[in-house]
Each structure stands twice: as structure tokens, then as C-alpha cells.
Amino acid sequence: MTETAAVPTALLRARAEIDLGALRANVRTLRARVGDLAVMAVVKADGYGHGAVRCARAAVEAGATWLGTATPEEALALRAAGLTQRALCWLWVPGGPWRQAIEADIDVSLSGMWALREVTEAARAAGRTARVQLKADTGLGRNGCQPGADWAELVAAALRAEAEGLVRVTGLWSHFACADEPGHPSIAAQLTRFREMVAYAEGQGVRPEVRHIANSPATLTLPETHFDLVRPGIAMYGLSPSPEIGTPADFGLRPVMTLSASLALVKRVPGEHGVSYGHHYVTPGPTTLGLVPLGYGDGIPRHASGAGPVLVDGKWRTVAGRVAMDQFVVDLGGDEPPVGSRAVLFGPGEGGEPTAEDWAAACGTIGYEIVTRIGSRVPRVYVNEEERG
Ligand SMILES: *Cc1c(COP(=O)(O)O)cnc(C)c1O
Predict the structure, then answer these.
(1) Domain check: are 80 and 126 in the same one?
(2) Which positions bind substrate (predicted)?
(3) What is the pLDDT, as a whole number, of residue 4?
(4) Is the CB of residue 367 below 6 angstroms from any atom belonging to ligand 1?
(5) Are residues 177 and 62 in the same domain?
(6) Which of 89, 142, 262, 330 could form a disulfide with 75 if both were Cys (CB 3.0 to 4.6 A apart)?
(7) 104 CA distance to ligand 1 middle (Å)
(8) CATH number of domain containing 356
(9) Same structural domain for residues 35 and 126?
(10) Are residues 180 and 314 in the same domain?
(11) Pocket mutation for ligand 1, best pick of 88, 175, 187, 368 (most atoms within 8 Å of C-beta)
């Protein structure tokens, strides 16, 4: 294994190990599901907390040909790091860096007339054709252009801008609301609406390079949604979109992030000893406590208080009392592992450690949030950076 450590002493406290070999294998597994279709590796929010640039590079090595981000700044950062693949960013506000995106050959998503106006102005100023993808709201009720008159107006205006050489409409796309809930009636309804909106735009003369709507759950379970390209995020990082559709192993996926810390203290305490702020945990009898130097300042949810599982010295322990900003405590039940022993919060689960899904269940959230919120104070350590064999 190759390791890159930016701040060695920080690693003594805690680390998020990112297995790029697992990420590449996950991308290959996803590609095998979609045949010849293109895969857009979604690396928004710093690659769901895993590091956008490293993950984008690994995904490209494994055959992803597109990169997807939410904000334009995230896409520009990929370009600054030397990634030249097709890239799409979809979350714009007025005054955004349209011109920089055009000059960096980044596809920009348009959900309404205001965005088309801004991008055509920027294209004119840059003297270049902007690559734009029209986003349809097929039922998510979030970003995207409403069907009917709004869509007709956006399509017509985009075609006029295309005729002037200011834009090229490279994509027609949308996003699901409930693809992770098998059989949810909105899935079929959104798919029908998407087909109608694509057919309308193509009937008017739009010739997109790609049409796409599939996120991870749709990529994994709904082949009829794949069109020309799929946009997996969470599956690439080895997590299942929801326990309802299966475990990562059910889909041949392996979690990429392992979060661990060194015990900062191990000590004996008597019974009836209050633990952490508010004394929400009181030792049931004489025991030993282990201090884990991670807290909500590192992205450990405070909702994990009294609930989050941790593997210490071969046994699952539970967060005792409240998670504080920088630390939490586990009751070691009388065991005395040496101070400095590794406490593993989550990982692939193959070494008996909990998974991000276990943390999600303990905190009443989803695996996405558990990995994405791990903060910048936790150094990322990249393993299996090099392709072997
Ligand atoms: C986040 C996101 C994705 C990826 O979603 P996953 O469920 O993580 O696969 C795809 N498309 C859009 C528009 C997104 O915002």
C-alpha cells in the first residue's frame, strides 16, 4: 500500500483512510452494469468528503468519462488540478462564474431563462460557444425548468442562442426524487415526463450529446432510466443509497472511507460516575473509559450521543454520553487496551468494524451525511493510489 500523509502528527489523532483501489473497483462495477453508456463520476462536496480531485482522478482511471459537481467553483477546481474530462456543474446563482466556466470548457446546467440570459452574455463576451445542458424538473420539485410553457420558452430561447453560435445544447437532463424507494409511483411518473420533455426538445431541433436522469439508486436498480449516461455519487464511494434497496455488498460495492482515531486516554472509574456534558451517561459500576479524540468539530454528529458504535480492541462499544466538539467517551467495560489503541468508527466492515450505514442508523440519518460531513480537521490518507498489476 502507498500512503501520502500531509500532516504526519495530525495522523496520530485521527485519520480518514480513503481506499482509491476500492473506488476504482466500484466505478468498474458500475460501468459493468451500464454497458457502453457513459459514467459521470459525481464529486461534489469534496467528493462526498473523500477528496474531490483524488477521487475524480481515480474514477477517470477506472473509465468514468464525465465529472459532475454541484457548484461551478467545484468544477473549476477540477480543471485547476489538471482534469480535462467533460464536466457538468448544476447549481448556479445570478452573477456566477459563467465566463470562467465557458473558458474552462465546462458544461453548465440551465434551469430557467435567467441562467440562459447570463450564459449567453458571458459567451458573447468570451467570444466562445458555451456548452449548456437544459435541466427539466420532471417532478423532484427542486432545481430544473417546469414542463409546459416554461420548458417551451427555455427550449426556444436556447435554440435561438444556438443559431447565433452562443451556446451549444449538449444535454437534456433531470433528477429523481424517490429512486431509492423501490416501486415508488413517482419514479414511473418522472420517467414518462422526462421522455415527453426530451421528445419535445428534440422535436424542436435540440440535438443533445447526452440525455440523463439516473443517480446511484437508479443506476443500480432501474436500467430503463439509464439513457446515454448515468450519474452515480454515493455508490462510487461504496455506500448503498438506502438500506431498503440493499447493502453495498449486494451490489458488489466496497466502502471507500475508514474513519479511525487513537485513544487519547484509558482510565479506571468507579460506578455512578457521570460521563461528558450533561451527565447523560452514568457508569453502571466500576469500569474503564476510553477517550476518542473526535467530536462534532470533526463532523461526528452530536446525534450519535449515546448511540454511535466504535470498534476498540476487537469489541463494539457505544458512545457514552454526549459527543462534544472535539472528543467523546466509550465505556470499555473493564477492558484496558493501551492508550493510543485504534478506535475504528466506521469502514468497510470487513475487519468487524461498524459501517457508515451503522452510524446513519444510530443517528437517524443517511450514509451520505455521515461521510460527507467529516471535516477538514481530519486528515485524509490515500491508500492504493497507484493502479497495480
Ligand atoms: C448528488 C447528485 C447525484 C448523485 O447522487 P447519488 O444518489 O449520490 O448517486 C446525481 N445527480 C445530481 C443532480 C445530484 O445532485
Answers:
(1) yes
(2) 142, 325
(3) 53
(4) no
(5) yes
(6) 89
(7) 22
(8) 2.40.37.10
(9) yes
(10) no
(11) 175
Separation CA 212–CA 157 (nearest Å): 21
pLDDT at 10 over 90: no
Ligand 1: distance of its center to the CA of 12 in Å?
34
Calculate how far, in angstroms, residue 307's C-alpha sits from the geometric centre of ligand 1.
28
Indicate if ligand 1 lies below 6 Å from the C-beta of 233: yes
Atom of ligand 1 nearest to the CA of 90: 13
Render pLDDT for 269-309 as a digit per residue (tens, 0 to 9): 999 999 999 999 999 999 999 999 999 999 999 999 999 99
Is the pLDDT at 263 greater than 60, yes or no? Answer: yes
Map grid coordinates 435554440 to a residue.
Answer: 159
- Residue 368 forms part of a structural domain: yes
Mutate to test the pocket of ligand 1, among 69, 74, 181, 215 (most ligand atoms within 8 A of CB): 215
Same domain, 106 and 24: yes
Cα of 140 to ligand 1 centre, how many Å?
A: 12
Indicate the annotated binding residues.
Answer: 142, 325
- State how far the Cα of 57 lies from the Cα of 18, in Å rounded to an integer: 13
Q: Which residues are catalytic?
A: 44, 277
At residue 21, does pLDDT exceed 70? yes
Residues 184 and 273 in one domain: no
Average pLDDT over residues 175-187: 97
How many domains, the chain? Answer: 2
With a CB cutoff of 8 Å and minimum separation 6, the contacts of 220 are: 30, 33, 235, 241, 245, 246, 251
Range of the domain at 294: 257-383
pLDDT beyond 50 at 134: yes
User: Quick check: CB of 241 below 6 Å from ligand 1?
Assistant: yes
Residue whose CA lies nearest to ligand 1 atom number 13: 175
pLDDT at 7 over 60: no
Q: Which residue spans within the chain are E strands per DSSP? A: 14-19, 38-42, 66-69, 86-89, 107-110, 130-135, 167-173, 210-212, 229-230, 257-262, 265-269, 274-275, 281-282, 287-292, 309-312, 315-320, 328-331, 342-346, 380-383
For 183, the grid coordinates are 416501486
Average pLDDT, the chain: 96
Q: Are residue 180 and residue 296 in the same domain, yes or no?
A: no
Q: Is 232 in the pocket of ligand 1 (CB under 6 A)?
A: yes
283 domain-assigned = yes
The residue to which cell 461551478 is assigned: 72
CATH code, 205:
3.20.20.10
- Residues annotated in the binding site for substrate, as ranges? 142, 325
Asked if residue 86 lies in contact with residue 60, where contact means CB atoms within 8 angstroms, the answer is: no
Q: Is the pLDDT of residue 18 over 80?
A: yes
Q: Is residue 292 part of a domain?
A: yes
Of the pLDDT bands very low, low, confident and very high (cuts 50, 70, 90), residue 9 is confident
Would you give the DSSP letter of residue 136? B
- Read off the C-alpha cell for 204: 424542436
